[in-house]
Design goal:
Layout lengths: L1 H9 L4 H11 L3 H17 L6 H20 L3 H18 L2 H17 L3 H18 L2 H17 L3 H43 L3 E7 L2 E6 L1 H11 L1
Helix pairs in contact: 1-4, 2-3, 3-4, 4-5, 4-6, 5-6, 6-7, 7-8, 8-9
Length: 228
């Protein structure tokens, strides 16, 4: 992605960032935070905070630190991380960075039982997800609102958001199922066409939403020569 390209181009040591991600995934939270802090120090020493790519990189690291602090239930620290990330996201005017900061602040404030603030940031996140057409993000916010109202012992409101989240997730599941079926149809047509034309076609699925088809030119030429 753009951040990885930028890190490579600027000669920034990516090892600390990768190590921090690994420590986070393995539950070694203090070590992860130390890696992220050391990485930020390296970035600041290289004066990367003056460029757009550098700002985006720093914002992503503060989001990582916020996620770790949330896992540790250090809510105030997480809020500080996401507030800093938000200030950088506003400089970038990027919906992706804004949603990362907003949702993190919502979770942090929910953890400190500041539910009004949490609701405000969840609403801001939802507004951006609607603009972006991000169904997965919308389902996530409905689920977070559900848990927030469950914490407040408001089961009827919580149930309302659970139904909304479930509805979106059902729609996403259907979308994926339809996409897979369409890919299978394409695959069957290509195999039939290949058989009729006496050619070999190699099919590779790189992702659920995409398909790459490569026709073996050598085999085709060999088949034509054989027919002659």
């Amino acid at each position: 992605d753009n951040i990885s390209t930028y890190i490579h181009r600027r000669g920034i040591n990516k090892t600390l960032l990768l190590r921090g991600d690994t420590m986070h995934e393995s539950g070694e939270y203090n070590q992860a935070l130390q890696c992220f802090e050391d990485f930020l120090q390296d970035v600041y020493l290289k004066k990367e905070s003056i460029s757009k790519e550098g700002i985006k990189l720093i914002a992503s690291v503060f989001v990582r630190m916020g996620e770790v602090h949330i896992k540790m239930e250090m809510w105030e620290a997480a809020i500080c991380d996401y507030e800093y990330s938000l200030s950088l996201a506003k400089e970038l005017s990027s919906n992706v960075e804004l949603t990362n900061a907003y949702v993190g602040l919502g979770i942090g404030y929910c953890g400190t039982a500041q539910y009004q603030n949490a609701r405000e940031y969840f609403d801001k996140t939802m507004a951006l997800y609607l603009v972006m057409g991000d169904l997965k993000g919308q389902a996530k916010i409905h689920n977070l609102l559900q848990h927030m109202y469950e914490k407040q012992r408001m089961p009827l409101i919580a149930q309302k958001y659970k139904k909304k989240g479930d509805s979106i997730e059902f729609k996403l599941h259907n979308n994926v199922s339809v996409a897979i079926e369409k890919l299978d149809q394409i695959k069957r047509r290509l195999i039939n066409t290949s058989a009729n034309a006496h050619t070999n076609v190699r099919i590779q699925k790189s992702t659920i939403g995409s398909i790459m088809i490569k026709q073996e030119l050598y085999s085709l030429k060999r088949n034509i020569k054989y027919k002659r």
